[in-house]
């Protein structure tokens, strides 16, 4: 397999392409604006939050929470409000360039409720592969995901019934932050060498294992644009988030999870990035109670390559390695693969048309001593078929199993 630009910039999860559609907000009792730039009206002002969730195919805004507790609203219907969303690139698009997943459309409200605090929650239509609602866009020329600028507009169509008896018409809404509890659980950090990373800290005490997640090519920085957000590593897919779930934390007995972000893409210069990743591992281990005998590395596509690279450069650092749909051919010689002593479990899908699964994952499995491998025919989860390259979805769900042992349990046993 020749390594094309497409291969180098692989792993663009979460960047489903879409067309910008005109949004037609219906007339109502009050039309309001979002993005914190609301104007007009001297009546009731209500702030709102965008609630997001990282699906297997990338992060989507799944609901909007209105700060209405002080208004004491009663039960409402989905038709009380209309939600319009506009998503645009955070950086200028060069002539002839293209960004996928921008949109300008109405978000159907599928349900409306008042939560226990008295805030109104508008559930929005969302699903894997559904256009509109995503938080990331894919820059074609850079091969990168970027966090879109989101501008939500809410229109109130009917007066809001309240427990005080007097209906309320809200004159202005002000858009607040994007909230994703899983993503927000990871703190922001910068290494001594300037490499950014996100870190999840377990609630349990004592020395705990550390899982290092290495992202795909689409989640690196977009330099020289100066765009280095430390966000897309957690929003494009569930690779790192999976290890922070309650199930994974139970299996590992509580684990730190660190997700470094490349300043470009790992394949660009694995020899240069390896010590920078090692520096982050050492920094986290020094500042926290990490069990140095239980440090694991996993990654997808570009990160799958980098996971293997790390075990060739630092043969005694990791207790286990999980390279997923990684590029090996022409990058890691067979002689280096044959010297890997780190327990290794490789994962890919045979319909991967981005990184040749036979020339890379299957070949690596044949060369790495005592390695394990799980080969899928397709990438299907909850009835939805994803691109064949996205086999990291299975690892993020602890699906690979050999002889009755799932991949997270296998990792946790290595030391």
What do these coordinates show?
By secondary structure, this protein is α+β, with helices and mostly antiparallel strands. The chain has 2 domains: 5-179, Sandwich (Immunoglobulin-like), CATH 2.60.40; 183-413, Rossmann fold (3-Layer(aba) Sandwich). Helix content is 19%, strand content 31%. It is built from 11 helices and 24 strands. Strands 13-14-16-15-17-18 form a 6-stranded mixed β-sheet. The protein has a 5-stranded mixed β-sheet with strand order 7-8-3-2-12. The radius of gyration is 23 Å and the shape is elongated.
* Helix-strand makeup class: alpha+beta
CATH class of the largest domain: Alpha Beta
CATH homologous superfamily grouping of the largest domain: Alpha/Beta hydrolase fold, catalytic domain
* Side-by-side strand order of the widest sheet: 13-14-16-15-17-18
Largest sheet: 6 strands, mixed
What does the radius of gyration come to? 23 Å
> Helix fraction?
10-25%
> Number of helical runs?
11
Would you count the extended β strands for me? 24
User: Unreliable runs, pLDDT <50, ≥5 residues?
Assistant: 1-32, 35-42
The CATH architecture designation of the largest domain is 3-Layer(aba) Sandwich
Structural domains: how many: 2
Q: Approximately what portion of the residues adopt beta-strand conformation?
A: 25-35%
Oligomeric composition of the shown chains: single chain
Q: Roughly what is the average pLDDT, rounded to an integer?
A: 90
Stated plainly, the CATH topology of the largest domain is called Rossmann fold
GO biological process, one term: proteolysis
GO molecular function, one term: serine-type peptidase activity
Protein name: Peptidase S9 prolyl oligopeptidase catalytic domain-containing protein
Signal peptide: 1-29
């Amino acid at each position: 397999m020749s390594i094309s630009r497409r291969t180098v910039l692989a792993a663009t999860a979460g960047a489903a392409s879409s067309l910008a559609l005109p949004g037609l907000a219906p007339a109502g009792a009050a039309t309001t604006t979002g993005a914190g730039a609301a104007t007009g009206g001297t009546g009731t002002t209500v702030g709102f939050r965008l609630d997001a969730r990282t699906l297997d195919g990338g992060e989507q805004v799944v609901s909007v929470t209105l700060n209405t507790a002080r208004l004491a609203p009663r039960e409402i219907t989905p038709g009380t409000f209309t939600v319009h969303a506009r998503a645009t690139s955070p950086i200028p698009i060069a002539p002839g360039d293209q960004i996928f997943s921008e949109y300008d459309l109405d978000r159907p409200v599928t349900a409306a409720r008042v939560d226990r605090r008295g805030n109104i929650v508008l559930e929005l239509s969302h699903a894997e592969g559904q256009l509109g609602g995503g938080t990331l866009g894919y820059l074609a020329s850079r091969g990168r995901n970027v966090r879109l600028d989101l501008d939500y507009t809410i229109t109130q169509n009917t007066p809001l019934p309240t427990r005080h008896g007097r209906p309320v018409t809200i004159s202005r809404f002000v858009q607040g932050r994007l909230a994703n509890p899983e993503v927000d659980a990871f703190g922001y950090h910068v290494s001594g060498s300037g490499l950014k990373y996100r870190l999840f800290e377990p609630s349990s005490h004592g020395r705990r294992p550390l899982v290092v997640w290495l992202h795909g090519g689409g989640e690196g920085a977009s330099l020289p644009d100066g765009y280095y957000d430390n966000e897309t590593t957690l929003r494009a897919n569930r690779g790192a988030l999976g290890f922070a779930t309650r199930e994974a934390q139970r299996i590992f007995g509580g684990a730190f999870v660190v997700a470094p972000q490349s300043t470009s893409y790992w394949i660009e210069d694995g020899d240069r990035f390896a010590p920078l990743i090692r520096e982050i591992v050492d920094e986290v281990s020094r500042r926290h109670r990490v069990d140095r005998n239980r440090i694991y590395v996993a990654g997808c596509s570009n990160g799958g390559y980098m996971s293997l690279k790390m075990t060739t450069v630092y043969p005694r650092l990791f207790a286990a390695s999980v390279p997923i749909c990684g590029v090996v051919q022409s990058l890691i010689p067979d002689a280096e693969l044959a010297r890997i002593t780190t327990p290794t479990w490789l994962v890919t899908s045979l319909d991967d048309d981005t990184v040749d699964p036979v020339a890379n994952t299957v070949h690596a499995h044949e060369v790495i001593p005592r390695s394990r491998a799980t080969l899928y025919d397709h990438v299907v989860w909850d009835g939805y078929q994803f691109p064949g390259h996205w086999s990291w979805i299975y690892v993020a769900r602890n699906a690979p199993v050999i002889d009755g042992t799932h991949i997270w349990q296998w990792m946790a046993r290595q030391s």
